[in-house]
Amino acid sequence: MKAAVMFGVGQPLEIRDIELDDPQPREVIVKVKASGLCHSDLHTLKVDFGWPVPLVLGHEVAGIVEAVGDQVTAVKVGDHVVGNVISTCGVCDSCSRGEPTRCTNPGAIRRGPDERARYTLDGQAVTQIGDIGGFAEKILVHERNLVVVDKSIPFDRAALLGCGVVTGIGAVKNAAKVGFGDTVAVIGCGGVGLNVVQGAALSGARNVIALDLQPAKLELARKFGATDVINPAEEPDVVARVREIVGKGGVDFAFEVIGLPQTAQQAIDITDVGGTAYVLGKIPPGKTVGLESNDLLRGQKKLSGLFMGSTIASIDVPLYATMYQQGRLNLDDLVSETISLDEINEGYEKLEKGETARSVVVFD
Ligand SMILES: [Zn+2]
Ligand SMILES: [Zn+2]
Question: From ligand 2's centre to the CA of 87, what distance in Å?
């Protein structure tokens, strides 16, 4: 089976033949039809987060169930499924409280160190990023890492539901709980940021301010419901401009979707008294983001990290799929281009340059 394999940080991915094991009782083989290029995998490719190599990236997948273990109940052969990167044990305190992104034992659904790996290359274990490893013709995953979706949804759109869409809209719906008339700013308008914009617009926010250095991304943000756009490269005083737009000290909710300490600080700076800055971006390990004294006391600002939009995949993925079918959720304009697995390194180069929101690898 062909897969794009990462052998080291900073090295291009190599297309290799890897071996897929047979499914264990609760595991599933999915024939992959589409696999999105997410920014967090680009970070993994460029910055050492400690992932063991060889590693198969790709955690935004959609496909068709091909085989199931004998205890699988969540999916059946022929189902169209989306990968769910939020691995959960289902029984810890967090899972029991309905907070799966805070699961304390996600390893419970992985194979143990003494077992044969799901993927191997010349006998060596190959890691699956996010327990998915989706840049491959097939994936072998635990049934809890899949959600069934309606067969009418095109695979390249459905794939994005697994990460970019749930992370972006989930930040608005599940974490910030943005309400009618609230004010929102989004720093970084890639695949996740556009979904924060879209979620805020759907929530009835009065102002949805999109910030990005790429004019094309700002145009796209308007399509997703941004009421105002700011290009920090052309705006000498971003904080003053945000205050001017909302007519007060800043926005109620600012979302940083890039992963840099300086843009996280900018999110804090453009937040109003009592407002909250959310950091969705993957800040490099060892870097710190914090609140300055005035922001803490008089400012009463809050700063929060977020993981995967505090999503409950079994609820949120079908919800967003339904809203897409109703024509209320835009997935079509998220897909910048579809490419083949062989073109994956070029796809990441474009993503790094900010030329694309999402490239999606499609398989026959
Ligand atoms: Zn992702
Ligand atoms: Zn758990």
Answer: 8
